[in-house]
Design brief:
Elements: H1 7-15, E1 22-25, H2 28-32, E2 42-46, H3 48-55, E3 60-62, E4 69-73, E5 78-81, H4 91-96, E6 99-101, E7 104-106, H5 109-119, H6 122-136
Parallel strand pairs: 2-5
Antiparallel strand pairs: 1-2, 3-4, 4-5, 6-7
Helix pairs in contact: 5-6
Length: 140
């Protein structure tokens, strides 16, 4: 199924955020690369105009990690963060290093790997293995 046909990405498209100011993080990059069949929500990291637009769409609260701020949209289907954790705290570098897939900016798999290794949760370690396997395969 194309990303544009998935509910979460239709919701994202409706937000009309400027692509140079946000990136899809979390498990979104794994879905985009075909490493996961589905995900339950979208995590975004935003700056500048994209963050300003998100601020008009929902209440700004502290993030669960205790770092930065978060805006939950559509009952948490999309969460927009102004900060990221797990060894990747440079928001500009994360966004500037995005991979465009179907016109959507995703955190690179290399950055996703660093982040998931940094978290070290059981579900993330399973994803780490998937990403390592994917990246070890010769050019696609």
């Amino acid at each position: 199924m194309a990303l544009s046909e998935r509910r979460l990405f239709r919701l994202l498209e409706k937000l009309a955020l400027p692509s140079g100011d946000y990136v899809v993080t979390g498990s979104g990059p794994l879905l985009a690369h075909g490493l996961k069949a589905s995900i339950h929500d979208l995590d975004l990291v935003a700056r500048g105009k994209a963050w300003e637009m998100a601020e008009t769409l929902g209440p700004v609260v502290g993030s669960q990690s205790g770092f930065g701020r978060r805006i939950a949209l559509d009952h948490g289907a999309i969460e927009v963060f102004d900060h990221w954790v797990g060894g990747l705290t440079d928001v500009d570098a994360i966004i500037d290093g995005a991979e465009l897939i179907d016109g959507i900016p995703f955190m690179s798999l290399k950055d996703t790997l660093i982040w998931k290794r940094g978290l070290g949760r059981a579900k993330d370690l399973a994803d780490v293995r998937l990403i390592e396997e994917y990246l070890s395969v010769p050019a696609r």
